[in-house]
Structure formats: structure tokens, C-alpha cells
Amino acid sequence: MAESKVLIVYYSKTGFAKKYAEWIGESLVSDMCCDVVPYEKRKKIQFGQYDTILFGGGFHAGQINGLKWFKARINKLKGTSSIRIGVFVTGAMPSDAPDVEKTMRKNFTQQEWETIRTFYLPGGLCYEKMGIGDKLMMAVFRAMLKEANVDSQMRQMVAQSFDITNKEAITPVVEWCKTR
Fold this sequence. Notes:
The chain is α/β, with parallel strands linked by helices. Helices cover 36% and strands 23% of the residues. It has helices spanning 16-28, 67-75, 100-105, 110-115, 132-147, 152-157, 171-178; strands at 5-11, 33-38, 52-60, 63-64, 84-91, 117-122, 124-125, 162-163. α1 links the parallel β1 and β2. It is elongated and about 55 Å long. The two termini are 12 Å apart.
């Protein structure tokens, strides 16, 4: 039997999706062929070579960065039922936050939600790597939290950069990739 081949494509603005993509790739490489490709190099990918394709991106205003491109690309693979498709998403919310699944679902049709395996991995905020537009959007968000009288702990959390990535969070993703 031929060795399984996994492709991980990631879109990372502030580094959290990249960190997780690399961790997942490192965890898989001893058991199977695994290629980790940044979004910027996506045009060189031969998708048909892989048994499992995993896309990773961060939440940006409720949308998953790069997902529109990825879904268009995998739609071209329809009829190749042996390819498994997964998506991991990073964000500033802890894994157990009540809005995680609801926010993720908004990025998929019902059919996509049922056929694409999804994972949420806690990331954080990195103001140092954000563009001016994103920094302004976060300033507006913080002002809205203050105006809505949201608890001060939440306001303090988004007032500065933080990293809640956790290498153990990749375990379900790695297990899914290894299972055929």
C-alpha cells in the first residue's frame, strides 16, 4: 500500500495558523509524507497528489482567511471521493468559548459542514503584526465592548497582544490526519 500523503496549506496574517500548521506537519512527518505550504505558494500545489488536504486560517471579522479560495479549489476536486478535506481555524477565543462553533459554521454551507472536518485551535492577538486597518478595527471593537459594559477582563484581554496557542490542541487534528 502506498504511503499516505497529507497537504497542509495555511493562511497566516499574524503567525498563529503558521505555528499550528508547522506543529501538525512536524507531528505527521515521521508517519507519512506531509507537505506544509504557505498560502502565498498555493499556485504551485498539485492537489491531486494528496490523500488528505488540510487548510488552516485565522478568523478575521468572523470570516476564515483564505477559505473562499480553498473551497473553490476543492470544489474542482469533486468526484475524487478518496481525498479527505479538513479545515483548522485559529482565533482569539478560547476553545471552550460558546461562539466558536457558531462562528465557524457561518463560513460553511450545511453540506460543507457535514463533509469537511473542522477544528478550532486557540491562537491569540498580535498587534505587532497587524496592519493599520486591523488595528483600527480592534480599537473600534474595544470601544464597543466598553460601551456595551462588557466585563473588564474581556476588555483587558483584547487591549494587548497575547498568545494562547497550545501544541496539545493539535492532537485531534493529527489523529484525524493519521486515520484512514
